[in-house]
Amino acid sequence: MATRVRQASKKCTVIGGSGFLGQHLVEHLLERGYAVNVFDIRKGFENNKVQFFLGDLCCKEDLLPSLQGVMLVFHCASPAPSSNNRDLFYKVNYLGTKAVIEACKEAGVQKLVLTSSASVVFEGTDIKNGTEDLPYAKKPIDYYTETKILQEKEVLSANDPERNFFTVAIRPHGIFGPRDPQMVPILVQAAKSGKMKFIIGDGKNLVDFTFVENVVHGHILAAEQLQTDSPLCGKAFHITNDEPIPFWEFMSCILTGLGYDAPKYHIPYWLAYYLAFLLSLVLLLLSPFITVKPTFTPMRVALAGTYHYYSCQQAKKHMGYKPLVSLHEAVAKTIESYPHLRCSV
Ligand code: NAD
Questions:
Q1: Which of 120, 175, 187, 212 most suits a substitution to test ligand 1, by most atoms within 8 Å of the C-beta?
Q2: Which residues form the pocket of ligand 1, taking CB atoms under 6 Å from any ligand atom?
Q3: pLDDT per residue as tens digits for the range 5-39
Q4: Which of 70, 62, 73 is nearest to 96 (CA)?
Q5: Which residues are designated catalytic?
Q6: How many A from CA of 162 to the centre of ligand 1?
Q7: Atom nearest to 96 CA in ligand 1
Q8: By three-state DSSP, how is residue 18 classified?
């Protein structure tokens, strides 16, 4: 009997397990002796220790088979922020998360760990050492963030000790590391097309970039400590590398590490912001005739030119969190993992 209970508590499902963070999470869970199901809309990798369930998380019937006999669920699925598709974000991040909660309750899951985002409190202006007490952004920077807020609220309010159902949200910021299809490849692409010459603002603005293995560590600690009367129940926690770095210094480290030039010309923040704003107005006026998805947007200018770093004091206090990999080591590991993106001239 005791063995069966232990086995059930070591069985988990990772929703979004085919994604960048999801795959790293799955690998670490397997290393820690968990039996792992992956639920995703696509199969992102091969591993015969993992049981895959393909489906759409918006559909409870799709989800249920992946949750049978499972006590612990990680929900780290989301459409890519760059898709900028309002209806899709609303459907997957908000309505889909409601379906996840219902399915978990129906299947008798006890713990739900959501991957939220520190951006739920960011409005495009400076945040220095922000704590979890900051209110949700009244004007979120994009649709993605708008629905991450709805999603997080839904998960945290679903915490229900009477039904033995416990929830927690992890808020990482700027996840990076090997096999990320977004940050490094997009940065390299921008450098190759000559778009990485300018530093927006004075280049001193500190930002959190968090190594994927530290984010995974935060998730597993949260999952293992989430239980009756735990201070984690129904709460959100920042998980960072605890080493904020100037945004442009981080970009430069990755670029020079891969053999590209670092950006060196400064453009005042206000000028970049208003140019991006003007561009978005022009594209709005032209939208009945042409559709262009600009990369130079006021939101991207704000992300690159403001301070936004967060305290992970609460995670240290309540989960015993401490980053496992330093930023220096994490950058080196990341650069090493992209040999195919090195500058060849
Ligand atoms: P990712 O795009 O690599 O992975 C997301 C996964 O979700 C994909 O495998 C995708 O197929 C799956 N998915 C999307 N829609 C689905 C659906 N309807 N049904 C089932 N599966 C679906 O993203 P990631 O970078 O690994 O991010 C993971 C989580 O972390 C997301 O919730 C994201 O909001 C959050 N987050 C990411 C960052 C970052 O810097 N990458 C920062 C903060 C928070």
A1: 175
A2: 16, 18-22, 40-42, 44, 56-58, 76-80, 92, 96, 115, 117, 148, 172, 174-175
A3: 445 569 999 999 999 999 999 999 999 999 999 99
A4: 62
A5: 144
A6: 31
A7: 18
A8: coil
Measured in Å, residue 16 CA sits from the centre of ligand 1 at 6
CA-proximal residue: ligand 1, atom 27 (nearest): 21
Mean pLDDT of the chain, nearest integer: 94
Measured N-to-C along each axis, helices 269-286 and 298-305 cross at an angle, to the nearest 10 degrees, of: 160
> What is the per-residue pLDDT for 4?
46
Alpha carbons 241 and 311: distance in angstroms, whole number:
10
Tens of pLDDT, residue by residue over 213-237, are: 999 999 999 999 999 999 999 999 9
Q: How many residues does the chain have?
A: 345
Computed over its alpha carbons, how large is the radius of gyration of the chain? Answer: 20
Task: Identify the architecture of domain 2-179+209-242+309-325 in CATH.
Answer: 3-Layer(aba) Sandwich (3.40)
DSSP secondary structure letter of residue 160: B
